[in-house]
Amino acid sequence: MLHRALKSPIYIALAALCASIAGNIFAHRRIQGLERAYRNLQSTPLQPEDDSHYTYVDDDHPIRLPVHLPPVALKVEETSRFGISNYAAWEDWRTTDWFPQTDGFVRLGPDGRLFGVSMFHQMHCLQLMRDAVIHNQNVTTHTHHCLNLLRQMILCASDTTLDPINIAGEDGSPGANGVGTVHVCKDWQRAYDFVTDNQKSAVWNSPS
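RESULT FIELD:
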């Protein structure tokens, strides 16, 4: 009788309903947990992470900049800034990797060991590619390096945010320009602030 009851449509429906409710409760709790974590990250003050256990000798150093970058939203928008060759474009693009001492480098550790920061290396490469377009340059070793670096960094980020189809080509083929799409990113301003503060510190007065 029990075996027959377990096969009844009513029992199966009830079991499915219970499973659905349990799944929704679990999903709701998971979403709430993610939202709490997101809020906590947003409220985290800018401060360097503790890197005192590293000697900064040979490979004994952190793999990334020792500062926490919480998630932030970036909505893709069209802009008249960051053009190609007009005068204002030069000033706009210069802001992407301008710092008090040098382009996006930091000195870390007790002896002020010099490091580059990948984010600003990539910004440098964008500027180099733009310069090559403006001057119709032949491919050089430097531009080839930068093109491949940007390719690999795009693969590294693997941003799978979905872009709605919102444009059409001249032949009517569907396309997407990404405008209006919101991406979840790392707080890039904190990276700029960290490098700026680092380059203003005393360690830059006695370079190793």
